[in-house]
Amino acid sequence: MSTIKNHVQLIGNVGQEPTITNLESGKKVARFSLATNEYYKDSKDEKQTDTNWHTIVAWGKTAEIVEKFVEKGKEVGIAGKLKTRTYTTDDGNQRYVTEVVADEILLLGSKGDK
């Protein structure tokens, strides 16, 4: 039962080119945004789209896969967990950020897709 605690699965499209950072420790981290869409019909029976944006963070081998194969517009599947962190802005305000830390990434779409 512990495997379903704090578990996130998303399928969506990459919203921007991933940012890759090589840390002094030798670790690699990748960050990118992912758009997920939900479709529904409104009261006038017209199709509507609700888009949600997620910040994805990948470390180590997963970050290397992101660096090699993930680009803006690509459809990907993500499995990971939610992580919330805090930081203080220059003017002293505390901010909270919730990100998806990706443990696995699945490259979707056809081989010919760019």
Query: How would the global form be characterised?
Result: globular
What is the arithmetic mean of pLDDT?
92
Assigned CATH class:
Mainly Beta
Q: Hey, roughly how much beta strand do the residues contain? A: over 45%
Can you characterise this structure?
With 114 residues, the protein is mainly beta. The chain has a single domain, classed as OB fold (Dihydrolipoamide Acetyltransferase, E2P), CATH 2.40.50.140. Helix content is 9%, strand content 58%. The protein has 1 helix and 6 strands. It has a 5-stranded mixed β-barrel. It starts with 7 loop residues before the first strand and ends in a 7-residue tail after the last strand. This is Single-stranded DNA-binding protein. One of its GO terms (biological process) is DNA replication. It holds the Pfam family SSB. GO terms for molecular function: single-stranded DNA binding.
What's the helix and strand layout?
Blueprint: E1 8-14, E2 19-22, E3 28-41, E4 47-59, H1 60-69, E5 75-88, E6 94-107
Parallel strand pairs: 4-6
Antiparallel strand pairs: 1-3, 1-5, 2-3, 3-4, 5-6
Pfam families: SSB
Protein name: Single-stranded DNA-binding protein
Keywords: DNA-binding
